[in-house]
Amino acid sequence: MKINVLTEDQFPQYQLLSNEYGSVFNDMNWLKIFGKNLKLLSISDNDGKLVGGFFYYLETHAGIRFVKCPPFTPNNGLFFVSRTSNVSRQNSDFKNLFTEITDSFNKSGFEVLRIAFPSLYTDFQPFIWQKYKVVPNFTYVHDLNKTEDEIYSCFSAEKRNEIRKTEKDRINIHEEKDYLIIKNLIENTFLRNKIKYQENILRKILIEFSGNNNSFAYVATNNTDIIAFSFCLYDKSTAYYLFGGSTEETKHSGAGSATLWECIRRAKAIGLKVFNFEGSMNPGIEHYFRGFGGTLIPYYTVNKANIFLELILKFVRREYF
């Protein structure tokens, strides 16, 4: 098994494989958003056949080289096609794969690395053996094979009351197809919460990449004022809640919940199988997502820094280093 930078002649094969085994975040048009900072790697078997891929994002601040997931991308997009049905061989394949990935990270020249993996992958022993810190993270998902009533019945009483309150207060929930409006709402939310972001990347995601075939957004309005919004990307099976928020000036306790509920309903209506809330490690956000009654599932990050920086990071990011 070998890991190399994906070559241009491999792009069509990569896209075919990632369409079947990856997610919307493996789409070449998504990855192009991040320019030269994005490193796209191929996984080939011993015969040179492409069997998988993953990516990471390089960024330098104050002379420190960071390796991480690209902005607004939940994981490193790893997908891998094992060519055997034998369980022991499969386990060996995955062990060898993660050994190779560990080696590729070691060669990347990072000072600080923090990479999340898709929830499908759980064998991180090769990283532990190489002195990486492996940290469990969690997100909530909904099984969309359930009926709407079954999904809604999982919501907390508080969440159901919030949604009913929007109906009582005649808050209008509708789809918003003008993503410039969504972009402005996201930026206002980021500014209000002092969240740093790259405007050019956000613009490319919403204006150049997102469309009717891979995304939807819902807003709540009180008269003509937008008071909350939710935005999702999706692929052939899963919807991912990527952005959401409410306006401080006209905040309504149930508006955000109502837009998110409409996103879940939309994901089910178009035949998707899973709704992923995409991350819930912040206690306040976790509490909010928990009210929607999804299933809590783990995913893992691998973390490492050079010894000097690690000592510093243990004081400010002890949960990761």
Description:
This protein is an alpha+beta fold and 321 residues long. It has 2 domains: 2-131, Aminopeptidase; 140-297, 3-Layer(aba) Sandwich (Aminopeptidase). The chain has 11 helices and 13 strands. Helix 6 (157-168) crosses helix 9. The radius of gyration is 21 Å and the shape is globular. The two termini are 30 Å apart.
What can be said about this structure in brief?
The chain has helices at 11-21, 28-31, 87-106, 125-129, 148-153, 157-168, 179-192, 199-209, 255-269, 283-290, 307-316, and strands at 2-5, 38-44, 50-61, 64-68, 79-80, 112-116, 133-143, 172-175, 215-222, 225-234, 238-246, 274-276, 295-305. The two termini are 30 Å apart. The radius of gyration is 21 Å and the shape is globular.
